[in-house]
Design brief:
binds fe (ii) ion; about 75% helix; mainly alpha; about 160 residues; single chain
Length: about 160
């Protein structure tokens, strides 16, 4: 699906006279894929559950901007990507839970410690709770994470 998405986005760039590589873009997802390549549990925790889930937060805003410009074709592409990415986060949640069970680890506590260790965050700016719930996050876990991140922020201020 990621390859399919790339092809769709490249098609949109091409139709506007550009190509992949013409614009600067960050490589956070790719960097994290390298960093987590040695452990599927770590990969599931930090790539789908943090970074791909972040895509669910930002895509509706990007789509609204594109719609304002009247670019219906790009909106259609963003809709496909958004729909599929909910599935990617859901797959990440499934395998994260599975690997935690297999290793006898408590998933919520482990996730909190990984978030802190890798200096990552979920609750900054708009958080798409509805899409995260569809992707398998429980309201309970999301509430716990929000409280945890607030306490991390307070700890940093106190230092
Ligand atoms: Fe994805």
């Amino acid at each position: 699906e990621e390859v399919f998405h790339f092809g769709l986005m490249r098609g949109r760039l091409n139709s506007l006279g550009y190509d992949y590589g013409d614009f600067e873009a960050h490589g956070h997802l790719w960097d994290m894929a390298y960093k987590t390549a040695y452990d599927p549990l770590l990969r599931m925790a930090l790539v789908p559950r943090v970074l791909e889930a972040r895509g669910l937060d930002v895509t509706p805003g990007i789509r609204a901007k594109v719609a304002q410009r009247g670019d219906v074709e790009t909106c259609d592409v963003l809709d496909i990507i958004y729909r599929d990415e909910v599935g990617h986060v859901a797959i990440g949640n499934h395998w994260y839970q599975h690997l935690c069970r297999e290793r006898g680890l408590e998933p919520v506590a482990l996730f909190r410690s990984l978030i802190a260790h890798y200096d990552m965050f979920i609750f900054r700016g708009y958080v798409n709770i509805e899409a995260r719930e569809r992707a398998g996050f429980s309201r309970f876990e999301l509430d716990m994470l929000e409280d945890f991140e607030k306490s991390l922020k307070q700890d940093k201020k106190a230092v």
